[in-house]
Amino acid sequence: MMNIKIICLGKLKESYLREMCAEYVKRLGSMCNISVVELPVQRLSENPSEAEISAALEKEGEQILSKINRGEKVVALCVEGKMLSSEELSAKLDGFALSGVSAVDFIIGSSFGLSPEIKAKADLRLSMSPMTFPHQLARAMLLEQIYRAFSISAGAKYHK
Fold first, then answer.
1. Could you list the mean pLDDT of each consecutive 10-residue stretch along the chain, which spans 160 residues?
2. Cα Rg of the chain (Å, integer)
3. CATH topology of domain 3-39+57-154
4. How far apart (Å, rounded) are the C-alpha atoms in residues 141 and 155?
5. What's the N-to-C CA distance of the chain in angstroms?
6. Model pTM greater than 0.85?
C-alpha cells in the first residue's frame, strides 16, 4: 500500500474545511497510508520586503525538508507547475508505484509559495489551476484529487 504524506504550512482554521479534509483522509484510509503534517508558517510584517519573504521561505523550506525521507517522491504544488487531469494524476501515482516508489509527499507552501530549494527537489511540480485559491482550500482540493486518483486506479464509480 502506498504511503501518501501531505506536508503543508499552517493549520486549517475553518471547521468545515477540517471536516472535509478529515472525510477524505478517512476515505483514503482503505486505499493508502495517508498522513497530513502541518508545519508552522513564518510570521512576517504587515508589508514584508522581498528579503523578509525570501528568509521566511528558506526557513519554511528547511522545515519541509526535515519531513521528507530518502526515497520518497516529492510533488510540490506551485503556480508554475504542470496541470494534470484527474486521470493523469492517477496514472502518475500508478507510475510511481510501478517503478517501486512506496511513498509520495505532496507539499503545500504558505501564502508566498515554496522556497526554490523545495521546487528544485520536487520530482513533479503540480498546479491545481491557473486560478488562485486559498491555501486552506487547496488542501481539501488536493485530498479530494488524491482520493479521485486512487478511485480511478481501482475502477470505482466515484470518478465519472
1. 96 95 97 97 92 96 97 96 96 96 96 95 95 88 97 83
2. 16
3. Alpha/beta knot (3.40.1280)
4. 21
5. 24
6. yes
